[in-house]
Amino acid sequence: MMISNSFGLEAKAQNFIHIKTLSDLSAFDSIDNKRLLILGAGTNVILGDYFNGTVVEVCFNDIEINDDYISVGAGVDWADLIEYCLINKLYGIENLTHIPGSVGAAPVQNIGAYGVEISSFINSIECFNLKTKRLETLNNDQCEFKYRDSIFKLKDFVILKVNFIFNESFKPILSYPALSNFLKDNAIDASSITPRMLSESVKEIRNSKLPDPKITPNVGSIFKNPIVRTNDFDHAFLDGHRWDQGDEYTKLSSARLIELIKSDLSIPDTLQFYEHHSLVLINNGSASFDEVINLLNQIKSKIYEKFNIELEIEPEIISS
Ligand SMILES: Cc1cc2nc3c(=O)[nH]c(=O)nc-3n(C[C@H](O)[C@H](O)[C@H](O)COP(=O)(O)OP(=O)(O)OC[C@H]3O[C@@H](n4cnc5c(N)ncnc54)[C@H](O)[C@@H]3O)c2cc1C
Asked: How many domains does the chain have?
């Protein structure tokens, strides 16, 4: 059976299971954990031709309001949660509008955009521990959230529900340069911006910079932005493309680093960088897994050779 993924790579899997109720979790009793691929919408994975194991899809699709938090099923589409929050006057995640994917995958790489990360709104996560075969609820600290990272990358847990606490009042975060420039250019006054206006603005910025994966196959940013010790490098060549993180660390723009070595790359006809964003790689329709990995390795090694900076691939690579 084919595995759907936004990069448009032709990938098949031996087996699929769908978790619709807690009793479906008994399927894990007889499955080898090492040959499991938990998948949401497939917008952050690069897949080999054949996954010799079981693809797991969590189909919990409810949003429930409890006394202390909003509990959201892993299968809920991220865009639906954004809309739910806008309608129900729950504030904080407007800057994360238009990130494709499912709610269950959002904590895995601690999705972030325009100065906001989802970890700030997660109270706890209900999951199935694949090692102990038991249900567990991890609180925010136990999730070990960092920049594009969390404990879920270890693959010991199937996320079933994410429990959020959103803000009760609207305190927009507008300082991220691309966002503040957009608001200025469009004469949108920070003091009168509404949650809907902020969400729509983010959507407009993203549409101008990122290709729609439903039309143009891609997985968003192909590399994380590296965070380096400020004093370890002379970063003058990245002026305007680096952001002070405080605590002696600086985040560098991977897009800019790629632009600086692009002419040294040998890019197959099947792949290309998106014209408005060098961090986004596009599958022209018939790219193979090997071509993608080869290009990513080329980029990594050229940037390391030239600038002594190590890039980390953002999507998960699943070779078999
Ligand atoms: C155009 C575009 C723009 C993007 N912009 C951003 C952005 O601004 N910021 C950002 O952070 N990301 C961005 N992304 C990446 C992607 O949208 C997010 O990582 C998203 O959360 C992935 O959701 P998904 O359901 O497609 O996950 P998948 O690709 O299906 O899975 C991603 C990872 O999560 C794991 N996973 C999925 N579901 C579960 C579960 N229930 N339990 C345990 N593990 C699970 C998978 O095993 C895999 O390791 C972008 C992608 C695209 C294509």
From this structure: 3
Torsion of CA 266, 272, 276, 279, to 10 degrees: -70
- Name the residue with the closest Cα to ligand 1, atom 45: 105
Q: Is the pLDDT of residue 233 over 80?
A: no
Q: Both 188 and 285 in a single domain?
A: no
Q: Three-state SS across 128-174?
A: EECCCCEEEEEECHHHCCECCECHHHHCCEEEEEEEECCECCCCCCC
Q: Reply yes or no on whether 199 is catalytic.
A: no
CATH number of domain containing 76: 3.30.465.10
For ligand 1, is residue 99 a contact (CB within 6 Å)? yes
188 alpha carbon – ligand 1 mean position (Å): 31
Q: Are residues 109 and 143 in the same domain?
A: yes
Exactly one of 71, 221, 254, 278 is catalytic; which is it? 221
Say whether pTM exceeds 0.90. Answer: yes
CATH assignment at residue 249 = 3.90.78.10
Q: Is 58 in the pocket of ligand 1 (CB under 6 A)?
A: yes
Q: Cβ(122) to ligand 1 under 6 A?
A: no
- Give residue 240's pLDDT: 83
